[in-house]
Task: structure prediction
Amino acid sequence: MSNDLPMSYNDMKGIAKDFVKSGLFAQFRNPEQALVTIMAGREFGLGPFEAITSMYVVQGKPSFYSHKFADMIKRSGKYDYKVEEHTDKLCSIDFLEQQVRRSSVGGEEISWKKIGNSTFTLEDAEKADLLKNPNFKKYPRNMLYARAMTNGAKWYCPDAFHGTGAYEPSELGAVVEWAEDGTQTVVSAPEPEGVYEETPKKAYKANGLPNFAEAATQPTGDSIPTNKEGGKLITDAIELTVASCIEKQTKSGEMMGEITFLEALSVQGVEVRWPEYSVSYWVYQEKADDYRALEEGDKVLVKLSFESKQSGDKVFNYQNCELIAKLEEDSLKEQLQETQEETQSDTEVQQQEML
Result:
């Protein structure tokens, strides 16, 4: 397998950004995830679009949609497969390896030798507690084929996948949506597990932040309103007071943040489950110094987002935060004074006109 298209890191980075920006690949939350998938695909000889539509990296492990397993096995040139039986109750697949014998006259004789069989049944699905997955009820043939194919690939054709384990996304905890034709799309995947460390704060004053007066929506005694974007509920920019902000580290070494606020929040359509709000690493990295500069009592302008994801019978809830600006007390006083002066000036002009 080879990919003859020359491509630099910046080329792949630009393609990943454009893919995510297009809105056609909702499974990727940011360009970095798409970039990792494209780079992983290159290792297997896949072009960018082929990788994006055939692979998904879950917890750092490359996984392939079931239809791609069949393609990867055939394109290896070394392996092949034959579906022996395929019903709503079982799928049985024979796996073959190419045998090359050189003849006495200098030619080659090619044959295929059966090296094993992979069969997956409804009974196997029940033992693995998979039948509660609604996909098994809607598309049993597709699901049985996927499991028989991925098991056989692991057992008999590991080098066709560079020994990476040959996973299908749902085997790694991803929520997968199936179509009637057997194609798959990852709906959500588990977040990386974090190993957290609190780090010292740095003295820093943020510059060039947007004018909060143009964007702020002040919280009141009523619930903070939210807007639905995809599967998330997101607030408008609101003014809150920082209780704490600490820096943490994900298992993969990426820095992220965690913020708590002094206010007791009530958010429309959401049950606020805990006081902490996570700052995802890709958001944190854009304004790392701004987050590190936050201290107790700081007034900030933030957006909050809430999301629930289901994986099997488990539901994962996320509370995230994004810093828009740190609000300086002097700036507040200056803007208030300017507003009062403008109001007073307008009143004086109106009084003079009346005279």
